[in-house]
Design a protein that fits this description.
The structure is a homodimer. The first copy, chain A, is mainly α. Chain A is built from 10 helices and no strands. In chain A, 44% of the residues are buried. The structure holds a DNA duplex.
Chain lengths: 196, 196
DNA sequence: CTACCATGTGAACAAGTATTCACATGAGGT
DNA sequence: ACCTCATGTGAATACTTGTTCACATGGTAG
């Protein structure tokens, strides 16, 4: 039998195991059985700590939201120049995706969007905040003359986020058939060339 | 009993029904039962025309590939100016997404990416062609002076496609909480402002 | 020490999945 | 006219899923 631990610790373990399953096999494979296997515990024990699959999904959404969107807000609040902030946010996001492929999979999963509306709305809100954060940094960049004034802050922010998202998609669908880091650097250099 | 029709017609009906199911309820809900219901035929009859679910997925991927990526190639081969071509491809893609929400859902589905590798590779190839097509148009735009020479054709093409993809995602996740057409127009105007 | 209760688990269950099969039915070639 | 075979279907099958339950076990409050 498994060593006993407090519910708080087990919850964390279960969420991490779930994210790992999504990263390896997608949301479709995120079954109680798979989570139990990845976490090294019985299926029944999962119900000891979570009321059901829905609650695991919600916990996963919170975990992801804090990891990605929270980090961007922290960077944006820093004291560097707008362009440096943008660059840090961009590459930080790329790194998180590389390390936890389950994150973009979960966020882009139509299973979540259509089968768990309340969670989708939670994610939608966080994405909205993320876009607003980037929009603010771009506005500051325009005000300081680092970014050309013809750029529309919100739409430019959407373009930047679109680049990141498409990169994550191509990485998954093409089975990691290109090197993430150089690809991200090329995209970033081109972004700079376009907006300045 | 259902009126008898040739396999070729039934195949088309089944693929369309499948796309409709994905559009309404996502890839997760793409079950034989749901397809049969949407197509108005028995489940067993689906196996009369397709060897199994895998073949339906493959047919759907081909159908989508022809609809989206084929159209872009046709536009690119036309005789208008590069910028006009890009604009037509962009809004044509947006329109297709609006009319068939199942298309982006299927293409972005991790179920397809991870559970049906051969189909994912088919899609990956078509996306690659799509990117190359747009890259070619952008290169022509630079050569003709419509697009500034600092722009890197391939990375700019990826940015454009990223804009489209992110718009499709936000539309799904936010439950169509914004107007697609005006949003697309704002994104396009900003793109023009950035690249010219 | 000991009794309680949170934690852990194998087995069982109902619901839903893809797929197969034995059997109808009717359109089209002879 | 008829007969053949492609087309259509309800029922059955084997499997997976989420969830529950009766029962073990061991840390810890008294």
């Amino acid at each position: 039998m498994l060593e006993k631990k407090s519910t708080r610790i087990r919850k964390e373990e279960i969420v991490r195991a779930a994210l790992e399953v999504v990263g390896k096999s997608g949301v479709r494979a995120l079954t109680i059985s798979a989570i139990a296997g990845s976490a090294g515990m019985s299926e029944a024990n999962i119900y000891r700590h979570f009321g059901g699959k829905e609650q695991i999904f919600a916990a996963l959404a919170d975990y992801i939201g804090d990891a990605v969107m929270g980090k961007a807000a922290t960077i944006a609040a820093g004291s560097r120049s707008p362009l440096e902030k943008l660059e840090t946010i961009f590459f930080s996001h790329i790194s998180i995706i590389a390390e936890h492929p389950g994150i973009p999979r979960f966020v882009f999963s139509d299973d979540v969007h259509l089968g768990h509306r309340n969670i989708a709305e939670n994610l939608s809100l966080r994405i909205g905040n993320y876009i607003e954060t980037i929009t603010g940094v771009i506005s500051a960049g325009i005000a300081e003359g680092q970014i050309k004034p013809e750029a529309s802050p919100r739409e430019t922010a959407l373009s930047l986020l679109g680049m990141i998202q498409l990169t994550a998609l191509r990485l998954t669908i093409g089975n990691a058939s290109f090197e993430l880091r150089p690809e991200a650097e090329k995209l970033w250099r081109n972004f700079i060339a376009l907006v300045s």
